[in-house]
Amino acid sequence: MLDAALTVLRQRPVVDAGRCLADMPDLARAEDFDAGVVRHLIYLAEPHTDRIVARHRGGAGDASGLRVAAVVLASVDGQMITGPQVLRTATVYELGLQVQAGPWPQWADRLDAELLSQFTAGEVEAPVYSWPRPPDPQQDTTLSGTGTLILRFSLPAGMPAPPFRLALRWRGTRDGKPASQILDVAGHREIRLRPFDASRDYLTSFPVFDERLLALYEKLHAARYDEQHLQAFCRLFTAICRTGLTMTWNKQYKRGARITERKFHDDLYAALQAEPELGGRLERGSPWPWASSTSVTTPSPPN
Q: Greater confidence, 23 or 164?
Protein backbone atom coordinates (compact mmCIF):
# COMPACT_ATOMS: atom_id res chain seq x y z
CA MET A 1 0.00 0.00 0.00
CA LEU A 2 2.79 2.40 0.97
CA ASP A 3 4.81 1.55 -2.15
CA ALA A 4 1.76 2.18 -4.32
CA ALA A 5 1.23 5.60 -2.72
CA LEU A 6 4.86 6.56 -3.29
CA THR A 7 4.67 5.43 -6.92
CA VAL A 8 1.59 7.57 -7.50
CA LEU A 9 3.15 10.62 -5.84
CA ARG A 10 6.25 10.36 -8.01
CA GLN A 11 3.98 10.88 -11.01
CA ARG A 12 1.26 13.31 -9.85
CA PRO A 13 -0.24 14.98 -6.74
CA VAL A 14 -3.02 12.79 -5.31
CA VAL A 15 -4.56 13.63 -1.93
CA ASP A 16 -5.36 10.01 -0.97
CA ALA A 17 -1.76 8.97 -1.66
CA GLY A 18 -0.47 11.71 0.64
CA ARG A 19 -2.88 10.68 3.40
CA CYS A 20 -1.74 7.08 3.02
CA LEU A 21 1.78 8.15 4.00
CA ALA A 22 0.43 10.01 7.03
CA ASP A 23 -1.53 6.89 8.12
CA MET A 24 1.61 4.72 8.09
CA PRO A 25 4.40 6.94 9.49
CA ASP A 26 6.23 4.02 11.11
CA LEU A 27 6.63 2.26 7.76
CA ALA A 28 7.69 5.29 5.73
CA ARG A 29 11.44 5.86 5.44
CA ALA A 30 12.98 9.26 4.74
CA GLU A 31 15.02 7.85 1.85
CA ASP A 32 11.78 6.91 0.06
CA PHE A 33 10.86 10.59 -0.26
CA ASP A 34 12.68 11.57 -3.44
CA ALA A 35 12.39 15.00 -5.07
CA GLY A 36 9.35 14.00 -7.16
CA VAL A 37 7.38 12.77 -4.14
CA VAL A 38 8.30 15.82 -2.09
CA ARG A 39 7.42 18.27 -4.87
CA HIS A 40 3.92 16.82 -5.15
CA LEU A 41 3.42 16.66 -1.37
CA ILE A 42 4.33 20.34 -1.08
CA TYR A 43 1.92 21.10 -3.91
CA LEU A 44 -0.88 19.25 -2.09
CA ALA A 45 -0.15 21.24 1.07
CA GLU A 46 -0.67 24.56 -0.69
CA PRO A 47 -4.03 26.36 -0.61
CA HIS A 48 -6.10 26.03 -3.75
CA THR A 49 -4.60 28.06 -6.60
CA ASP A 50 -4.76 28.19 -10.38
CA ARG A 51 -1.23 26.80 -10.65
CA ILE A 52 -1.01 23.59 -12.70
CA VAL A 53 1.33 20.73 -11.79
CA ALA A 54 1.31 17.46 -13.73
CA ARG A 55 -1.97 18.51 -15.39
CA HIS A 56 -3.62 18.99 -11.97
CA ARG A 57 -4.97 22.45 -11.09
CA GLY A 58 -4.76 23.95 -7.62
CA GLY A 59 -3.43 22.71 -4.29
CA ALA A 60 -5.57 20.81 -1.77
CA GLY A 61 -4.55 22.42 1.51
CA ASP A 62 -3.66 18.96 2.84
CA ALA A 63 -0.21 18.82 4.47
CA SER A 64 -0.66 15.44 6.17
CA GLY A 65 1.87 13.68 3.93
CA LEU A 66 4.61 16.15 4.88
CA ARG A 67 4.46 15.27 8.58
CA VAL A 68 6.19 11.93 8.09
CA ALA A 69 9.73 13.36 7.80
CA ALA A 70 11.52 16.68 7.48
CA VAL A 71 11.30 17.73 3.85
CA VAL A 72 14.09 19.68 2.17
CA LEU A 73 14.15 21.11 -1.35
CA ALA A 74 17.37 22.68 -2.62
CA SER A 75 17.87 25.07 -5.52
CA VAL A 76 20.75 26.84 -7.24
CA ASP A 77 20.05 30.38 -8.45
CA GLY A 78 16.32 29.76 -8.08
CA GLN A 79 16.24 26.52 -10.09
CA MET A 80 15.36 23.34 -8.19
CA ILE A 81 18.14 20.78 -8.26
CA THR A 82 17.14 17.71 -10.29
CA GLY A 83 20.55 16.08 -10.82
CA PRO A 84 24.29 16.76 -10.57
CA GLN A 85 24.96 20.49 -10.78
CA VAL A 86 27.81 21.76 -12.96
CA LEU A 87 29.19 25.03 -11.57
CA ARG A 88 31.99 27.37 -12.58
CA THR A 89 34.86 27.44 -10.11
CA ALA A 90 35.36 30.67 -8.15
CA THR A 91 31.90 31.83 -9.26
CA VAL A 92 29.25 32.99 -6.79
CA TYR A 93 25.97 31.04 -6.81
CA GLU A 94 22.94 31.25 -4.56
CA LEU A 95 22.01 28.03 -2.78
CA GLY A 96 18.42 28.08 -1.57
CA LEU A 97 16.69 25.73 0.87
CA GLN A 98 13.02 25.19 1.60
CA VAL A 99 12.39 23.13 4.73
CA GLN A 100 9.22 21.70 6.25
CA ALA A 101 10.29 20.17 9.54
CA GLY A 102 6.92 19.43 11.12
CA PRO A 103 6.13 20.04 14.84
CA TRP A 104 9.04 21.37 16.91
CA PRO A 105 10.23 19.59 20.07
CA GLN A 106 9.37 21.47 23.26
CA TRP A 107 13.04 22.06 24.10
CA ALA A 108 14.20 23.22 20.61
CA ASP A 109 14.68 26.94 20.06
CA ARG A 110 16.22 26.80 16.58
CA LEU A 111 16.72 24.59 13.53
CA ASP A 112 20.12 24.50 11.80
CA ALA A 113 20.98 23.19 8.35
CA GLU A 114 24.34 22.75 6.66
CA LEU A 115 26.12 20.91 3.84
CA LEU A 116 28.52 18.11 4.81
CA SER A 117 31.19 16.88 2.41
CA GLN A 118 34.76 15.66 2.09
CA PHE A 119 36.01 19.13 1.14
CA THR A 120 37.60 21.79 3.31
CA ALA A 121 36.19 25.27 3.87
CA GLY A 122 38.85 26.58 1.48
CA GLU A 123 37.66 24.25 -1.30
CA VAL A 124 33.92 24.88 -0.91
CA GLU A 125 32.24 27.94 0.53
CA ALA A 126 28.74 26.87 1.55
CA PRO A 127 26.10 28.58 3.68
CA VAL A 128 24.95 27.53 7.13
CA TYR A 129 21.26 28.14 7.79
CA SER A 130 19.55 28.77 11.12
CA TRP A 131 15.86 29.41 11.81
CA PRO A 132 14.48 30.50 15.21
CA ARG A 133 11.50 28.83 16.81
CA PRO A 134 8.31 30.15 15.17
CA PRO A 135 5.47 31.69 17.22
CA ASP A 136 3.32 28.58 16.61
CA PRO A 137 5.78 25.64 16.50
CA GLN A 138 3.00 23.07 16.03
CA GLN A 139 1.82 24.61 12.76
CA ASP A 140 3.20 23.32 9.46
CA THR A 141 5.31 26.16 8.13
CA THR A 142 7.86 26.31 5.33
CA LEU A 143 11.24 27.71 6.35
CA SER A 144 13.37 29.17 3.57
CA GLY A 145 16.84 30.60 3.31
CA THR A 146 19.54 31.42 0.80
CA GLY A 147 23.30 31.72 0.99
CA THR A 148 26.46 31.96 -1.06
CA LEU A 149 27.88 28.84 -2.70
CA ILE A 150 31.36 28.86 -4.30
CA LEU A 151 33.35 25.87 -5.56
CA ARG A 152 37.14 26.18 -5.52
CA PHE A 153 38.15 22.55 -6.02
CA SER A 154 38.93 20.71 -9.25
CA LEU A 155 38.31 17.13 -10.39
CA PRO A 156 40.03 14.97 -13.01
CA ALA A 157 38.27 14.96 -16.39
CA GLY A 158 35.27 12.67 -16.47
CA MET A 159 34.97 12.23 -12.69
CA PRO A 160 31.43 12.09 -11.27
CA ALA A 161 30.07 14.87 -9.07
CA PRO A 162 30.81 14.22 -5.37
CA PRO A 163 27.92 14.16 -2.86
CA PHE A 164 27.09 16.90 -0.36
CA ARG A 165 24.79 15.72 2.42
CA LEU A 166 22.15 18.08 3.82
CA ALA A 167 22.12 17.83 7.60
CA LEU A 168 19.29 19.25 9.72
CA ARG A 169 19.55 19.49 13.49
CA TRP A 170 17.28 20.75 16.27
CA ARG A 171 19.18 22.79 18.84
CA GLY A 172 18.11 24.08 22.22
CA THR A 173 18.27 23.41 25.96
CA ARG A 174 17.02 20.30 27.73
CA ASP A 175 17.20 19.95 31.54
CA GLY A 176 19.39 23.02 31.67
CA LYS A 177 21.98 21.58 29.27
CA PRO A 178 22.63 22.27 25.55
CA ALA A 179 20.89 19.64 23.41
CA SER A 180 20.68 18.76 19.74
CA GLN A 181 18.91 16.16 17.62
CA ILE A 182 19.45 15.15 13.99
CA LEU A 183 16.36 15.04 11.77
CA ASP A 184 15.58 12.42 9.15
CA VAL A 185 15.56 14.23 5.82
CA ALA A 186 13.34 13.53 2.82
CA GLY A 187 13.58 15.10 -0.62
CA HIS A 188 17.08 16.43 -1.20
CA ARG A 189 18.93 14.31 1.35
CA GLU A 190 22.09 15.06 -0.60
CA ILE A 191 23.03 17.08 -3.65
CA ARG A 192 25.88 16.54 -6.09
CA LEU A 193 28.09 19.40 -7.27
CA ARG A 194 31.08 19.42 -9.58
CA PRO A 195 33.15 22.04 -11.38
CA PHE A 196 32.85 22.66 -15.10
CA ASP A 197 34.65 20.00 -17.17
CA ALA A 198 35.76 21.18 -20.61
CA SER A 199 35.87 17.59 -21.86
CA ARG A 200 32.10 17.01 -21.49
CA ASP A 201 30.23 20.25 -20.72
CA TYR A 202 28.91 22.83 -23.20
CA LEU A 203 30.03 21.60 -26.60
CA THR A 204 28.81 22.80 -30.01
CA SER A 205 24.98 22.59 -29.86
CA PHE A 206 25.16 20.29 -32.91
CA PRO A 207 24.10 16.90 -31.43
CA VAL A 208 25.71 14.65 -34.07
CA PHE A 209 29.00 16.53 -33.86
CA ASP A 210 28.84 16.57 -30.05
CA GLU A 211 28.62 12.77 -30.01
CA ARG A 212 31.85 12.53 -31.98
CA LEU A 213 33.61 15.03 -29.71
CA LEU A 214 32.48 13.22 -26.58
CA ALA A 215 33.67 9.91 -28.00
CA LEU A 216 37.07 11.49 -28.68
CA TYR A 217 37.34 13.07 -25.24
CA GLU A 218 36.26 9.85 -23.55
CA LYS A 219 39.40 8.18 -24.90
CA LEU A 220 41.52 10.99 -23.45
CA HIS A 221 40.16 10.52 -19.93
CA ALA A 222 42.02 7.25 -19.47
CA ALA A 223 45.20 8.32 -21.30
CA ARG A 224 46.79 9.89 -18.19
CA TYR A 225 47.57 13.22 -19.82
CA ASP A 226 48.37 16.16 -17.58
CA GLU A 227 45.00 17.36 -16.26
CA GLN A 228 45.62 21.06 -16.95
CA HIS A 229 46.81 20.31 -20.48
CA LEU A 230 43.80 18.08 -21.13
CA GLN A 231 41.34 20.74 -19.98
CA ALA A 232 43.13 23.41 -22.05
CA PHE A 233 43.11 21.20 -25.15
CA CYS A 234 39.41 20.37 -24.78
CA ARG A 235 38.51 24.04 -24.29
CA LEU A 236 40.44 25.09 -27.39
CA PHE A 237 39.42 22.22 -29.66
CA THR A 238 35.74 22.52 -28.69
CA ALA A 239 35.85 26.28 -29.28
CA ILE A 240 37.44 25.76 -32.71
CA CYS A 241 34.76 23.21 -33.65
CA ARG A 242 31.96 25.39 -32.33
CA THR A 243 33.29 28.45 -34.19
CA GLY A 244 33.95 26.51 -37.39
CA LEU A 245 30.45 25.07 -37.45
CA THR A 246 29.00 28.54 -36.95
CA MET A 247 31.17 29.94 -39.76
CA THR A 248 29.70 27.44 -42.23
CA TRP A 249 26.43 29.41 -41.97
CA ASN A 250 28.17 32.71 -42.70
CA LYS A 251 27.34 34.01 -46.19
CA GLN A 252 30.99 34.88 -46.71
CA TYR A 253 31.78 31.16 -46.58
CA LYS A 254 29.01 29.87 -48.80
CA ARG A 255 29.91 27.29 -51.45
CA GLY A 256 31.93 28.80 -54.31
CA ALA A 257 33.19 31.81 -52.34
CA ARG A 258 36.87 32.66 -52.70
CA ILE A 259 38.42 32.87 -49.22
CA THR A 260 42.15 33.27 -48.67
CA GLU A 261 43.81 31.26 -45.94
CA ARG A 262 44.83 34.48 -44.16
CA LYS A 263 41.21 35.75 -44.06
CA PHE A 264 40.05 32.40 -42.72
CA HIS A 265 42.70 32.54 -39.99
CA ASP A 266 41.83 36.15 -39.19
CA ASP A 267 38.11 35.40 -38.90
CA LEU A 268 38.75 32.27 -36.85
CA TYR A 269 41.12 34.08 -34.52
CA ALA A 270 38.68 36.97 -34.00
CA ALA A 271 35.85 34.56 -33.22
CA LEU A 272 37.99 32.54 -30.80
CA GLN A 273 39.04 35.70 -28.98
CA ALA A 274 35.35 36.28 -28.23
CA GLU A 275 34.84 32.75 -26.87
CA PRO A 276 34.02 32.98 -23.14
CA GLU A 277 35.62 29.59 -22.49
CA LEU A 278 39.01 30.90 -23.67
CA GLY A 279 38.73 34.20 -21.85
CA GLY A 280 40.75 36.13 -24.43
CA ARG A 281 43.88 34.09 -23.63
CA LEU A 282 44.57 33.16 -27.27
CA GLU A 283 47.99 34.30 -28.53
CA ARG A 284 49.10 34.38 -32.13
CA GLY A 285 52.43 33.92 -33.86
CA SER A 286 54.16 31.53 -31.44
CA PRO A 287 55.03 27.82 -31.60
CA TRP A 288 52.47 25.45 -30.08
CA PRO A 289 53.51 24.82 -26.45
CA TRP A 290 51.74 22.93 -23.68
CA ALA A 291 53.65 24.78 -20.99
CA SER A 292 50.70 26.78 -19.66
CA SER A 293 47.03 26.08 -19.05
CA THR A 294 46.20 29.79 -18.90
CA SER A 295 47.17 30.71 -22.44
CA VAL A 296 46.89 29.07 -25.84
CA THR A 297 49.16 29.93 -28.75
CA THR A 298 48.77 29.23 -32.44
CA PRO A 299 51.17 29.68 -35.36
CA SER A 300 50.68 32.66 -37.64
CA PRO A 301 49.00 31.94 -41.00
CA PRO A 302 50.92 32.27 -44.26
CA ASN A 303 50.49 35.47 -46.27
A: 164
